[in-house]
Amino acid sequence: MATPVMDKVEAAAAASPYITATFRIRRFNPEISDESTWEDFQVEIDPKERVLDALHKIKWELDGSLTFRRSCAHGICGSDAMRINGKNRLACKTLIKDINPEKPITVEAIKGLTVLKDLVVDMEPFFQAYRDVMPFLVTEGNEPTRERLQSPEDRERFDDTTKCILCAACTSSCPVFWNDGQYFGPAAIVNAHRFIFDSRDEAGEQRLEILNDRDGVWRCRTTFNCTDACPRGIEVTKAIQEVKRALITRRF
Amino acid sequence: MSADTTAATGATDDVTLYDVDNPAPLIEAPRKRTKKTPKATRGNFEMYGWLFMRLSGIVLVVLVLGHLLIQLVLDGGVSKIGFAFVAGRWASPWWQAWDLVMLWLAMLHGANGLRTIINDYAERDNTRFWLKMLLYTATVFTVLLGTLVIFTFDPNIR
User: Fold this and answer.
1) What is the number of structural domains in chain A?
2) Does a structural domain hold residue A8?
3) Do residues A174 and A97 touch, judged by C-beta distance below 8 A?
4) What would the pLDDT profile of A87-109 be if each residue is shown by its tens digit?
5) How many other CB atoms sit within 10 Å of the CB of residue B25?
6) Which superkingdom heads the taxonomic lineage of this protein's source (chain B) (predicted)?
7) Residue A42: in which H helix or E strand, if any?
8) Between chains, do B24 and A33 touch, taking CB under 8 Å as contact?
9) Contacts of B17 in chain A (CB under 8 A)
C-alpha cells in the first residue's frame, strides 16, 4: 500500500513543473511601422506563475524591445492592465494555469486608448476624465481641529468604490468608451461615487451635475463589461446605477 | 559625414516608411480638449430621455400586447380585420385614445432608442448629424400623419 504512494510522489517530484507556453503578443512600434503585428514567443515557464512573469522572461531573455508598464507587480499600482485572451486583466494577478496555456495566450494593449508602443497606451484621456469629476474631498467652513469623524455605517456606504486602483481595465472594456472616447467611463464614475456618497464631502451636487451631462452616467448601457473586468472586484455597474438613482431622486 | 550619407540612403531604400526620427503618426487621443470639443451642458435632457425610455417601455408592454391580442388573436383572429373593423373601433373614443397614445409613445420610444444607437455607433460627426436629421424627419412625419388620420378618420369615405 505504501509503495505505490511513494512511487507517485517520486514521479511527481521528478517531473518538471515547467511547460512550454506560447505568448501571442500584439506588437506596435511607431518607429518601424504604423501597423501592429502579432508576434509569438515560446516560453518555458511554471504554469503557477503569472503572465507578468512570462512577459519579464520574454523581455529579459528573448526580446528586450518588448515594452509594457509595471510597477509594484502585486496588483496594487494598476500599471499592467492589459487584454489577455480577449479580457482585460492585470498581468500580475493572472496565473498562467488559469487561462489555458495549451493554446497560444494572446496579450495586447487595452482598447480605446492610443497605443504608444507594444502594450503601453496613452493614459491621459483616462486621467482627464478622472480629474473632471473632482476626486478630492471638498468641504465648506473652517477646518476642524481634529479628524473628520465618520461612523462605520457611513464609511460602509462607499467602501466598495474606495478599492479602485485606476488601472483602466473597466474604462477600456466599455463599448461606449470605445466609440468616441467622450464618455466619462466607469473608472471616473466609480471615483465620483466614492465622494458623492461620502458623508464628509459637500460637493456631491457638483459631481452629480458633472455626471448628468451628455457624456455622463446616462450613456451607460449596463453591459456589465466593467464589473467583469475589474481586478479589484468592484461592482462598477452597481455604482453607476447608484449615481443614476441619486440623480433622479434628488429631483423627484 | 560619409557614414551619415550612406545611412540616410540606406533608410530611403528600405521598405519601411518610419524610423526613429520619423515615427508613425499616432491616433488623436479621445477626450483631448480641442477647439471642436463641445462645451459641457447643464440640462437634464439626457436624464429625462433615460427616464422616458423606462416609463414608456412599461406602458407600451400593455398597449402593444393588448393591441396584438385584439387584432390577431381574439374574435376570429386576423381574418376579421378590414375597413369596417377599423372604422368600428375608431368610432369609440377609448380606442382612439389607445391608438393615439400607442402611436406617440412607440414613435418617441423608438426614435430615442435609435438616437442612442446613432450616438453610439456613428463614427464621424457629419454622419451622426445627418442620420439624426433623417431620424427626426421620419419621426415627426409619422407621428403627425398618424395623429391626423386618427382625428380626421371618416368611416363614410368613398
Assistant:
1) 2
2) no
3) no
4) 999 999 999 999 999 999 999 99
5) 9
6) Bacteria
7) strand A37-45
8) yes
9) 33-34
Q: Are residues A114 and A19 in the same domain?
A: yes
pLDDT tens digit string along B83-113?
888 888 888 899 999 999 999 999 999 999 9
In whole angstroms, give the CA distance from residue A21 to residue A43: 5
- Provide the grid cell at B107: 414613435
Question: Across residues A14-30, what is the average pLDDT?
Answer: 90
Do the Cβ atoms of A236 and A226 come closer than 8 Å? yes
Nearest chain A CA: its distance from B86 CA (Å)? 39
Q: Per the CB < 8 Å rule, is B27 touching A129? A: no
- The percent of residues in chain B predicted with pLDDT above 90, rounded, is 45
Within 13 A of A235's CA, how many CA atoms are on the CB side? 9
Whether residue A162 is found in the same domain as residue A236: yes
Cα A82 from Cα B49, distance rounded (Å)? 35
Looking at residue A90, its amino acid is L
Please name every residue paired with A45 in a beta bridge, in sequence order, or none if there are none. A19
Contact (Cβ atoms closer than 8 angstroms) between residue A164 and residue A192: no
Percentage of residues in chain A having pLDDT higher than 90: 79
- The pLDDT assigned to B13 comes to 46
Please count the other Cβ atoms lying within 10 Å of the Cβ belonging to residue B96: 15
Q: How far apart are the first and last CA of chain B?
A: 96
On whether any CB of chain B is under 8 Å from the CB of A186, the answer is: no
**Distance (Å, rounded) from C-alpha B147 to C-alpha B124?**
35
Contacts of A112 in chain B (CB under 8 A): 30
- CA gap B112, B99 in Å, rounded: 20
Name the architecture of domain B49-158.
Answer: Up-down Bundle (1.20)
Give chain B positions within 8 Å (CB) of A212.
44, 46-47
ipTM summary value:
0.77
B124 CB contacts (<8 Å, ≥6 apart)? none
